[in-house]
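=== RUN LOG ===
request id: a7f3
mode: sequence -> structure
chains: 1
length: 393
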Amino acid sequence: MTDSTAFRNINILTMAQAVGGAAPPIVISLGGIIGTVLAPDPALATFPVSLYNVGVAIGTLPAAWVMRRFGRREGYIFGAMIGICGGLLAATAITAGLFLLFCLAIMTVGLYGSYIQSFRFAAADTAEGDMKAKAISRVMVGGLAAAIIGPQVAIWTVDAVPGHPYVASFIGLSVLAFLTLLLVSRLKIPRPVAVSISGGRPLSEIARSPRFIMAAATGVVSYALMAFIMTATPLAMIACGHSVGQATLGIQWHVLAMFGPSFFTGRLIARFGKETIAATGLALIAGCAVIALSGLGLTHFWLALILLGVGWNFGFIGATAMITDCHTPEERGKVQGLNDFLVFGSTATASFLAGALVHIDNGWSMMNWLVFPAVAMVLVPLMFSRRLFARAG
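=== RESULT ===
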């Protein structure tokens, strides 16, 4: 693949991330609100949002297989078609007032999300050496645009269909998925030469390697803790007397903080190393918990969300760059699929737990105290292992 083709693919993936990545903000912004209206029990209000993460988790391994078998371009086209169907199904469910159908629709959108999440790996596959981290970071910049596009679509389309609030928002999600389809259809990524899933080392052998365990654990903790705190924050804010608008604005700042640092995260990794930046991200997530435990004012919530976003960016991009060191080209599909299954499976579990814990007495404080042992469990071995990995090459 020539440099010009690689650069073109990265640009396309960045734009596709901007429009395709707008789906999660739409789901996060509206899923709980719609769940409150449709759910038979208020405790199930956040259930659709959690099912989005379930959809991403269960979709990662099949998505990896599809792309390994047919190629990334064809896989991404198929994934975009799933997104179109998911958005239209959600609109239908809202119109009919069917909670279970809405849950199924959101999980379908999660399946679409499993393809969007792998854009970062597709970018890394087009680069070599230190440029891999920069390519990952470049594509993740598209998430910054998605953080603006998603909430704005949700806001401007709320009442576009008279008598049926939020229906047009999910039709808008389908339109964005269609735009994603148009973009990814222009990718020029060679189809895989070998389609055997047995190429390279056995997956069980790779999964037992210290390098993979460290990289996957870093990604799991970074993403799961982000979802754990983010899912509960709007509910905690409202319980503390803050408005829905203030909670929504806090989530928008959080998502901007998640993707804004991507302009320079790749350069930081090239200078200081992927393990160092990932460790910094974990430390910032711990800092988020410190701020959250120090008070319940609007500033505390917003600052905690911003630190959580930046910490996720450093931790997740650093972990993704670490994963690219764990496999050969013929092993990449199954290794990347396993990594994303672990990351998003853990994220779905964390999201479910957040919805349950935030409603109990002192649940918000308990959740933030749980951040520290989770971070320490990965941060300590990561700090010790970075020099070992550097010497091993």
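=== NOTES ===
Residues 219 and 320 are 7 Å apart (CA to CA).
The chain has a mean pLDDT of 87.
=== END ===
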